[in-house]
Amino acid sequence: MLEEYPVRGILAKAVQACEDKAQSKKIHLELECSEELEARINPLLLEQAVVNLIDNAINYSEEGKASP
Q1: Alpha-carbon distance 10 to 37, whole Å?
Q2: Diameter of the chain by CA atoms?
């Protein structure tokens, strides 16, 4: 079920879930998202999708580097 939900908190949880893996490859994760941003979403599915995207980015980045 979709509901209006603030997005920043979900993104922050996804970044936090990937932080250890990123640090092990000397990759810095940074979140830039307005506190006011809301969307009609399924929060759990969005978080999982973002974790998957971040994880893939870490996996395919060289140590100490990240994509812009």
Answers
A1: 11
A2: 39
